[in-house]
Design brief:
It is a single chain. It contains seven helices and 15 strands. It is α/β, with parallel strands linked by helices. Helix content is about 25%, strand content about 25%. It has two domains: about 5-205, 3-Layer(aba) Sandwich (Rossmann fold), CATH 3.40.50.170; about 210-305, Methionyl-tRNA Fmet Formyltransferase, Chain A, domain 2, CATH 3.10.25. The radius of gyration is 23 Å and the shape is elongated. A seven-stranded mixed β-sheet has the order 3-2-1-4-5-7-8.
Length: about 325
């Protein structure tokens, strides 16, 4: 109908979803906006209330939902015709009966350079695998996850000491850069698309606690990579000290240093007061700087790993 505003539906979560919401408000102030989000897990930073509050202050519609195709939401969708749908850090399947309602299409942001790292937590996996780059992709939704044609991508360099804390804002900025480049074409229905190369596809699964367990028999590069990958805001890499779980929140690799004769993987070989404790990996040494024992605060590692000869397993 003449005079109706162009409508955008944003499925979003985490601080990254909030950042995209803010950018949409700047780039498309003339559009009608509806926002969907869901309650965060107890172990992660809160985001739902911030997204709800900001949507309200922008005059956008808001709905808390995970199962967007449930029969209870049929009336909601019938009352809100959509021109464009976007999904940011959305963890649940959006059924075809929902995404096909968007006349200009439904597009998903993913934090990898598709077709590499399809699946869950791709930036975490990329750091843990000691990759040297990750990135962001905007693609058109398809029935099979992460397989739709690509609209745009932006690479993000992973430095040798970068943690997930360092990478998260850079990948978020890549999302925003892609949004700035593509939104006008998306709203016009003219955005280009490139089919993904299935022969180059790789996949990563949802991470489990076992994936975050440190294996000191691996090379120092892989041990250090895992520490960097799952530090805050994730749950931290972990191992056992005298039969009890110990989380390792920080550390650094000691270049060129090698274990002394007789030292075994996981052994504390040096305590550096005020700095941390040096632990053996298979082929090198890690200076562990911050740890957390069970039911205890995070502390400097030398306060817990306080003598040579202790073994982490």
């Amino acid at each position: 109908m003449a005079g109706e505003k162009t409508s955008i539906v944003l499925f979003c979560a985490t601080s990254r979803g909030l950042a995209v919401l803010e950018e949409l408000a700047v780039l498309a102030p003339e559009c009608s906006l509806t926002v969907l989000s869901f309650r965060e897990e107890p172990c992660e930073p809160a985001f739902l209330d911030s997204i709800r509050s900001r949507a309200g202050s922008l005059g956008a519609g808001f709905l808390e939902a995970k199962k967007t195709g449930s029969p209870e939401l049929a009336a909601f969708w019938d009352s809100r015709p959509a021109d464009l749908m976007l999904a940011v850090n959305w963890r649940y399947m959006i059924p075809a009966g929902v995404y096909r309602r968007a006349s200009k299409g439904t597009f998903v942001f993913h934090d990898s350079l598709l077709p590499a790292y399809r699946g869950f937590s791709p930036t975490v996996w990329a750091i843990a695998n000691d990759e040297r780059r990750c990135g962001a992709t905007l693609f058109e939704i398809a029935e099979e996850y992460d397989r739709g044609p690509v609209v745009d991508q932006e690479a993000v360099v992973i430095g040798p000491d970068d943690t997930i804390t360092d990478l998260f804002p850079r990948v978020t900025e890549a999302y925003l850069a892609i949004l700035r480049r593509t939104l006008a074409a998306l709203l016009a229905g003219s955005a280009g698309r490139k089919v993904q190369d299935e022969s180059a596809a790789t996949y990563v699964a949802r991470r489990t606690a076992e994936d975050d367990r440190l294996d000191w028999t691996l090379g120092a590069a892989r041990v250090y990579a895992l520490i960097r990958a799952v530090t805050f805001p994730y749950s931290g890499a972990h191992c056992l000290l005298e039969g009890r779980k110990l989380r390792v929140w920080g550390g650094r690799r000691l270049p060129g240093a090698v274990p002394s004769s007789g030292a075994v993987p996981g052994q504390v070989v040096e305590v550096r007061p005020g700095e941390g404790s040096v632990v053996c990996a298979k082929d090198g040494l890690i200076l562990v700087t911050e740890v957390q024992a069970e039911v205890a605060p995070r502390v400097r590692a030398d306060l817990v790993l306080d003598r040579p000869g202790l073994i982490l397993s």
